[in-house]
Amino acid sequence: MLAALALALTLDSGFAVIPRPVHLTPKAGTFTLTGATVITTDAASRALGFMLADYLFPATGYRLVVRSSAPPRGVPVISLGLDSTLRTVSDEGYRLDVSRSRVTIRAARPAGAFYAIQTLRQLFPPTILREAKVAGTAWTIPAVSIEDYPRFSWRGMHLDVGRHFMPKEFVKKYIDLLAFHKMNRFHWHLTEDQGWRIEIKQYPRLTLVGAWRRETIVGRPDRRDSTSWRFDGQPHGGFYTQDDIREIVAYAQSRFVTIVPEIEMPGHSQAAIAAYPELGNKGDTLSPWTRWGVDENILNPGEQTIRFYQNVLTEVMALFPGHWIHIGGDEAPKAQWKASPLAQERIRELGLKDEDELQSWFTRRMDEFLTAHGRSLIGWDEILQGGLAPNATVMSWRGIEGGIAAARAGHDVVMAPGSHTYFDYYQSTDTTREPLAIGGFLPLDTVYAFEPVPAELTADEARHVLGAQGQVWTEYIPDPKRVEYMAFPRACALAEVLWTPRDERDYADFTRRLATHLARLAVLDVNYRAPSIGATPPVSDTRPSR
Question: Is the full-model pTM beyond 0.85?
């Protein structure tokens, strides 16, 4: 019995599926894909059948037939179907059974069948992911029985395109990589001090002016000595048209990824103020910021500004059908509000205690507006200061304390602490061998050790922890290949944290599977960082500012 269990565990590791399935039972034999293989589906999974056929065609050269009826006896089959009785494995769960002659996929909902397809792709040799025919390969997979479902409903990755613009084609590739790892949230950070990246029809100057900065600061400057600052002298910018957004949203939806757009307010807003100076507190002419760090320019709290941003959100909601709209709320310095007659008058007329409560009032106005339109506001944990808006979800980045406070107050939480999920941090203590990064230190094993549910929470409070996500801030990440280097394979580790039950996670086993998985990433043209497996120093306590 013990020998059989040990053999099963060894075989389990050999399957090299990431994230690791909840239940995996190896069986005898293999299934071989041939040109005669038929994909059968029911009506509800027909589109997924064609997607699977499209996945398999380039490398194999087999244009598999997709049909609703069973093929003649003896023909190898991949069968997809929905079964409402499988709700016990959740809406995103699935069952995958592989025998010598048949692959059977069953799920309660299409999302689960899609994730089963991603597992199936990982059971084949890594070359199945090639975009051109691979000759001389036997397309076999081991017989196996898998029952699988996610631990968390929010399994996400973030991408900042405000600091450095990323082309539409790469955003699609990023979404593909998320879906391949069974992640279902893409947090798209679209506006910043340094650039406004989304077309808003009512306010064309947001992209005409706000999407372009004249140059970018070079290196990591000494903030105490401006005489040492150097700039590259090269204009930088770009934005996504509304047609681009619709295309990317549809692309994500077909891969069961919900896009969460972020429109920053009231801080991180200099690009918007540059386009429309009346949004600021001083009325002076600004340009999109050319530096990094926390900018003192924030939105004024007047009714005109409230209406402006609600009009922006109206267009954003028309483009993004997902439930959550992110309004930022972080790192909003209040010096300008302290000196602003308008802000001080607003504090007095509303009976507020201070500027923190004024920001809370501003956030509540957006919360009420989004709620009235059937959406939910989400913001960084600074929105707790001055009182949390009634329907807000909190994204906890300054540690987990904000998430604990929000969960105890009955609010949903997404954990995003710098200590475990900031993929703009260094991956080695020998920074001379790494690309310039914002600071900090976050090795692969620390990501894998992350536990999103704090021990301090009761069972009822813990239900408010929706999950977690990895952050990719791009101050020091100028292009897509650098994004990939910083995100992978750390995103692979986080994907397993968010999908696999805590008791089933094992770092040694993960690293064994990762060796095969890196070959997949190589085929997918991902510029991953080769991980340093083994003992690593503790995570730095330094938390660089965004």
Answer: yes
